[in-house]
Design brief:
The structure is a homodimer of 376-residue chains. With 376 residues, chain A is of the alpha/beta class. The first copy, chain A, has 15 helices and 17 strands.
């Protein structure tokens, strides 16, 4: 199901085989919250370089409902996306609800932000919902450990996630035949906060249960870059070489490069899409904030090295204008650019690993970002 | 510049030669208010069948400003649209401001809804702004006659528009060389409210001045279908056969068919785009209101006879869901469908005129609309 084709240092060039196709790794997955990557048609996603995307269980179970999506043939059919889909467990969004949710051993109960109904999410129901969606990669339900957390608190949270991971594994195996996508894979999630020893315990527990892939959760939650690097540096060498490694909710282009350098294979983040809609644009020379008045008359594209539809056809002045007028087309074109930028970056990293030039490439990328950053 | 290739009854199949290309008529022009047809890239517009579009002088002179668009190479360059563009005079939007504007012989002064500045629009400044935008077809500034209007009021308004039309002609001829698009054409606008005799006087005055094309203004302002048909039926036979005839701000698919039957060559309207964004969708069997709960689980496309990207790939259930979640993609896909529907309708009408089957086609169209209307 997963094959490492080439390595360069710890960086891995791999291929992930899933029911809806194979994915070249390292890969970045855009977020398709409500069954759509905001402002992008499936054709445009493919054109921007998307191989695989993420669907949000929490959102989709509330609207339009996972049973309805099942009745309509699963999420792929529903949204017209024929490539692989990974779904999160719904847990992360539930925990973001704060006071609106109540957690116990069984699971978590929350008040629907859509209609106020009480909704329960358990390891078993999360797996069932994801089975109804028909995703290719199903994630276990975990508790996203608070940050900062004392060692005891981080440990208890990690252990709860471990018991839930076991229940998810069982529910997944029991329910496989009734799933919309019986060939789906199940990934476990390493927790343990910022404590390397807890991360190790978490990983060992998950390995004992056995999963198709291993994700790293609970990072990009407000910790310093140093903390993230420290945890990743300690954890990644312990992770099994033959399974895909997925760093959840990460991150900036710089985070992606650092993650790949340490051996991460998969990423997802709302950053390119959300920031794109808000005129915060990635380029080889750093960030371009399109709302800045200096772009009002600029005839330059966002990034003169970029080959995307937006950069080939539109000026910063035009995007500045569209953004100022609140025109949908601005969000569409800027999302397209940011996704193209992320996917192109991953393609460059993949190629560099294949040709043994990973360090040269990363030095050159950071050099460009640091020396030309337009956002400063 | 304009050639009638074929006729069938009063319906005309023509070709309009403009600096940015030739246009097959009868043609429908979508509205690109702020330098974008909302939710559509230029490539998508072409894919939906758009030949020519309309830009709004009023909006563009306020944001980003016509001088800026001129500095950036004109509206075509600015928005990345290489086909023909027609611009309105700005008058219609100014008159919609109600108490915020003041009219006299010289022109109209209004308070900018963007920043509160006092802005003046005169026949001369409207022509200059349109010259800065670089449109292919420039419209004269006219006063949109109130509706309903007493004969005296309608006559005075029409006569003011006539004096302004003269000044527009002069300003256009004087300023041609400084325009971004020196090959642009100038259209006059027939006014006169619901009074056939005033319409005739207006047309004769415009013919005396001489324009490249003749538009019919002041319809689709709340009058009955019978009033519209009566005015058009009286006016169109008087219009010169060798010049294009443009019915402004019209209309529904039924209005387009009736207009073409009477000899109209050009139309524009916000209806397909605005209604598309609001889930009001045109189909061969009438209107589909996507917000209706009955579409929640429908696996049908909007229109099973439609070949557009939306109908080929997405169900009503999915569009209903996107609309309910306020997802941009819903507006994009539904706008695409409605524009495709309008352009396809015009293509069918053009073909029917060529083959002498116009009456057969219109009977069949109305039969489908009336007998299957899903909106009732």
């Amino acid at each position: 199901m997963f094959e490492v084709l080439e390595t360069d240092g710890q960086a891995r060039r791999g291929r992930l085989q899933l029911p809806h196709g194979s994915v070249e790794t390292p890969v970045f997955q855009p977020c398709g919250t409500y069954g759509t990557v905001k402002g992008m048609t499936p054709v445009e996603l493919t054109r921007a370089g998307t191989q695989m995307l993420l669907g949000n269980t929490f959102h989709l179970m509330l609207r339009p409902g996972d049973q309805q999506i099942r009745d309509l043939g699963g999420l792929h059919n529903f949204m017209g996306w024929s490539g692989p889909i990974l779904t999160d467990s719904g847990g992360f969004q539930v925990f973001s609800l704060g006071d609106l949710r109540k957690l116990d051993e069984q699971g978590v109960v929350f008040k629907s932000p859509v209609n106020g109904d009480k909704v329960q999410l358990t390891p078993e129901s999360s797996i069932q919902v994801q089975g109804n969606l028909g995703s290719d990669v199903v994630m276990v339900l975990d508790e996203c450990t608070a940050h900062p957390a004392a060692p005891k608190q981080a440990e208890e949270s990690m252990l709860l996630s471990m018991r839930w991971a076991r229940r998810c594994r069982d529910a997944f195996d029991r329910g496989r035949e009734e799933s919309v996508n019986p060939g789906a894979k199940l990934f476990g999630i390493v927790q343990g906060g910022m404590y390397e020893n807890l991360r190790q315990v978490s990983l060992e527990g998950l390995l004992e249960i056995g999963f198709d892939g291993y994700a790293i959760g609970g990072l990009s939650v407000g910790e310093s870059k140093e903390d993230m690097d420290r945890v990743l540096s300690a954890l990644l060498p312990l992770m099994p070489g033959g399974s895909p490694r997925y760093l959840m909710g990460v991150g900036t282009p710089q985070d992606l490069v650092r993650g790949v350098a340490l051996g991460v294979d998969m990423f997802d983040c709302v950053m390119p899409t959300r920031n794109g809609r808000n005129g915060y644009l990635f380029s080889h020379s750093g960030v371009v904030k399109i709302r800045n008045a200096k772009h009002k008359n600029s005839q330059r594209p966002i990034d003169d090295r970029c080959e995307c539809y937006t950069c080939k056809n539109f000026t910063r002045a035009y995007l500045h204008h569209l953004d100022r007028c609140g025109e949908m087309l601005g969000a569409m074109l800027m999302t397209h650019h940011n996704l193209h930028y992320y996917h192109k970056l991953m393609a460059q990293l993949r190629e560099a690993i294949e040709t043994g030039t990973f360090r040269t490439l990363t030095r050159s990328l950071f050099n460009d970002w640091n020396n030309n950053d337009e956002s400063v």
